[in-house]
Amino acid sequence: MSRQAPLELLDEIQRLPFDAEAYEEKLHLLGFPAKRAAIQSRLVDQAFAEATTGENLEARLIKAGINEETAHKQAEGFHAFQSTQPAVGKRIAGWYALADASVLADNTQRPSKPSAKSSAKKSAAATYIEPTDQPKYPLLQSKQTSRVLEMGHTIRENLPSSEDFAFTHAIFCQVALPHSRFDGHEFMRKSGPNWINVQSGMIDEGSGPVPQPIPYGPIPRLALVWISSYAVMNRDREVPIGASAAEFLNNMGMGREGRRYKTLRLQMHALAACRIQLGVNGRTFNGQPVEQFDAWLNNGESNQRPLWPGVLRLSEMYYNSLIESAVPLDNRAMLLLKGSSLKLDIYTWMAHRLHRINTTNGLFMRWSMLREQFGHEYQGPDADKNFKKTFLLALKDVMQAYPAAKIKKIRGGLQFDASPPPIAPRRLRA
How far apart are CA 236 and CA 84, in angstroms? Predict the structure, then answer.
């Protein structure tokens, strides 16, 4: 057995954690029965936790159903990790860092393909995805997972109060800003008949115009929801955004870490400066959502904190369009999903779309259609496959935020059935 691990494997050792629950899900997607997937996931988990040598781990992985080649490579990595970092290698956390769940699952001895008859039966018996209160592997539960499960339980057990009501523009539920940094000056996304075009702009930061990037990520999404919510509930396009950045971050449920201030400043300036075109079914909105926003000035020559603008004014056109087509959201869900722009986009789309679905036929979307809607950045020959894995993991948290959503995993995509909205219309009128 070679004692030299490939450099690529050593890189994986440092960054790829073993997630038993995700591994079980991967096995299930590959066609394993739920019981067998759970058993094998537990065996692989135990293999890494109990292994003391590379040879020992290799034998345990093979016994768990991993093919010999993959087991051998993982064992080599395990040995290299122990050799270079013996202190860390003795900890379970260090052992978990050796396993790439997708690689293991892809190289598992797969079950035989079911007959056409059994496949049809399985498809017909598909059940709705259900949120859960407890993880299947508590020892692997992170603080983030605990927070999500706790908030999900609260959402399921308690109806939203008026303080939990939030709103966003219907168009932003159908097309969205970029998930990650976009280097160009014009961003275009299409999804069926809907489309968005975002152009970066300039903002005066005290000494002349400064070019701004395209807004991206969770913060502009959360900011738009918070600003829109105030405008809708108060019927006012002048929105007081707080006496300080800290207050605004707190209003959006974000932490007060130093990096948050920097990101908030960047994204709010980008959002205030950009021009947006939105199109849905032959109707086009042109303009800037934000009409007035005083720049968050930074005086580098003094020790004073940057001046935070106290008021933001929406453009009249955007405000009128918002009032006409605002989509109610549960703010508790926004707080649960606040760290991921993808999860926020999935939730807002479902909040807008699911209660409008035909109750008879439902809505079936292939993975290529879902990728067009939510994952345009996934490209290449395995784009749908890679997106599918990311989407399903994100959907777990979204289901905690929207437990009433009726979704089935079936061959080739997802089936969405008519579901009650997060905020019932009667509660808005109460």
Answer: 62
Residues 84 and 203 in one domain: no
The Cβ-side half-sphere exposure at 294, using a 13 Å CA radius, reads 15
The total of other beta-carbon atoms located within 10 Å of residue 385's CB is 13
CA angle, 184 as apex, 196 and 259 as ends, to 5°? 95
- Please say whether the beta carbons of 225 and 273 come within 8 A: no
* Domain stop point among 113, 135, 167: 113
Could you report the average pLDDT of every consecutive run of 10 residues in the chain (430 residues)? 37 48 67 73 77 75 78 74 50 50 66 54 65 57 75 90 92 88 89 85 84 93 93 93 79 72 86 86 79 68 59 89 92 92 96 89 90 84 86 93 94 93 78
Range of the domain at 58: 7-113
Of 415, 298, 300, 294, whose CA–CA distance to 365 is shortest? 415
d(CA 254, CA 413): 33
Q: Give dist(CA 22, CA 37) in Å, integer.
A: 11
User: Residues near 137 by Cβ (< 8 Å), separated by ≥ 6?
Assistant: 20, 21, 42, 45
Which of 94, 113, 132 is the last residue in one of the domains?
Answer: 113
- CA distances to 131, 329, 399 from 151, rounded to whole Å, are 12, 15, 11
Start-to-end C-alpha separation, the chain: 71
Identify residue 97 by its one-letter amino acid code: A
Q: Is residue 180 situated within a structural domain?
A: yes
Confirm whether 346 is domain-assigned.
yes
CA separation for the pair 148, 249 (Å, rounded): 20
Nearest to 338 by CA among 168, 220, 258, 232: 220
Model confidence, pTM: 0.69
- Number of domains making up the chain: 2
